[in-house]
Amino acid sequence: MTTIVPARPTGAVSLADVLESSVAALTGQVGALPLPPARSAVVLLVDGLGSASLGARAGHARTLTGRKGSIWSGFPTTTAAALATLTTGALPGEHGLVGWSVLDAENDRVVKQLSGWDDRMHPSTWQRRSTVFERGSAVGVRSFAVGPRRYATSGLTEAILSGADYVTAETVAERFATARSLVAAPGASLVYLYVPELDMIAHRAGWESDEWTAALEELDGEVRRLDEALGADEGLLVTADHGVLDVAEKGRVVFGGQAALVDGVRHVAGEPRCLQLHFEPDASDALRAATVAAWREAESHRSWVVTREEAVEAGWFGPVDEAVLPRIGDLLVAARKGVVYYDGRSTGGAAGSMIGQHGSWSSEETQVPLRRFGAFAR
């Protein structure tokens, strides 16, 4: 039996605490993440900026690396799940976004959580928790989300940003300038600022690329300028949804042609670094056990291979609501080493596919920065 990793370091602050603690600081309270009081705050979420990659490029990000602090992002380390954790203050087993692609059992299909929303999987009901923005409004905190126009009306935005006014700004510099003007306005305000560029570059070119480093330098300069412009009662937190690691072509495992690994499997969900396999409803216990055993025999040397029951018992997704349980795979394959998994029968696996990857349990994926500026740095 493969050792199951713990879902969360005991007593550690996580991404779920960041926005909730920010609202607490704006209303005279103290959250799980203790913060000094402030009138207004910006929470900058840099998609894909792990603590390890930031540290490795410290000379290119002196503002960000001049401060210390990291937190646990949650599991799985994928954008839809992590952003929902940030904006609801709940873990995936409660808010319901348990992967990049998940099983919609009612409609017998796998749906991408970044882009696959429709009337059969409506954001307002699929995401099961109120947002920090909605709860903040009830205590007098007005919330804004600043991001690219292309995300303004997406299903994911509706699912996770309810209660915040979405303000569009296209370039990184324009987004920072917009956030600055919003946080400076009178009254208590919480500004969620989203920067997806580093993650996009990492997927295409890798986080070790010159392009990624250049984008980090630009980001660091914008953080420095915003910090310098903050008033005494304005706070800034910088964090990320997950880290990234570069996976070489030799690390791509195409499994769909291996009958023992797909016997009885109806749906392949999750992401390349954390597969979630769903069995046919009528698959026998013996068939399920044989497929699990085949995966453990083939991949336990480089991945955690666990059943849904084992993952839930270990707390991988936090507390799991009964309605969310079927969305989690019957069998999970979470990479421990530098590998990714592709079905290959209909999707992915080809040379030249994504370089930067995330989704599993490595420290490169789960540890993200939490840096404090302005009133929050006192």
**What is the β-strand count?**
18
**SS summary, helix count:** 15
Mean pLDDT: 95
From the alpha carbons, calculate the radius of gyration and give it in angstroms. Answer: 20 Å
User: Approximately what portion of the residues adopt beta-strand conformation?
Assistant: 15-25%
Poorly predicted runs:
none
* Terminal-residue CA separation: 48 Å
How does the helix and strand content classify structurally?
A: alpha/beta
Give the helix proportion (percent range). 25-40%
- Strand order in space, largest sheet: 6-5-7-1-8-18
* Molecular shape: globular
Reported for the largest beta sheet, the result is: 6 strands, mixed
Describe the structure.
The structure is a single chain. The chain is α/β, with parallel strands linked by helices and 378 residues long. Helix content is 32%, strand content 22%. The protein has a 6-stranded mixed sheet with strand order 6-5-7-1-8-18, sandwiched between helices. Strands 11-12-14-13 form a 4-stranded antiparallel sheet. A two-stranded antiparallel ribbon has the order 2-17. It starts with 17 loop residues before the first helix and ends with a strand.
Features:
about 375 residues, alpha/beta, 6-stranded mixed sheet, 4-stranded antiparallel sheet, 15 helices, 18 strands, globular
Structure in a nutshell:
The chain is of the alpha/beta class. The chain is built from 15 helices and 18 strands. The model has no long low-confidence stretch (mean pLDDT 95).
